[in-house]
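testing teh design pipeline on a random one, pls ignore if ur not involved
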């Protein structure tokens, strides 16, 4: 029988769970490319806007808006392409024959609506 958890154990487990969440966030597919594209586009728009108007707040606003829009759009397009590729790959080969477990195959069928 295990001992009851103390508040230090609960706090440690919460910290570990949060750390796993934060550290796994950066391994998301398409994230690095999307952030790099958004950052580069935002920096370019900021530079052009600042050099033409010399207004720092407006330039920062434009740069941040463009960076966010480019990153979000790039991420959505990349993820859509990834899911289309997975769907085509799963249609080309029967589920379960690709080396994945039956539970994974059932989850993929449910996600793809097959």
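output:
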């Amino acid at each position: 029988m295990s001992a009851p958890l103390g508040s230090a154990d609960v706090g440690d487990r919460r910290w570990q769970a949060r750390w796993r969440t934060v550290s796994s966030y950066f391994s998301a597919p398409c994230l690095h490319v999307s952030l790099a594209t958004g950052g580069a586009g935002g920096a370019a728009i900021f530079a052009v806007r600042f050099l033409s108007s010399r207004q720092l707040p407006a330039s920062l606003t434009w740069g941040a808006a463009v960076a966010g829009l480019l990153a979000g759009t790039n991420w959505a397009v990349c993820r859509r392409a990834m899911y289309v590729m997975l769907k085509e790959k799963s249609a080309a080969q029967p589920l379960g024959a690709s080396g994945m477990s039956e539970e994974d195959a059932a989850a993929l069928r449910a996600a793809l609506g097959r």
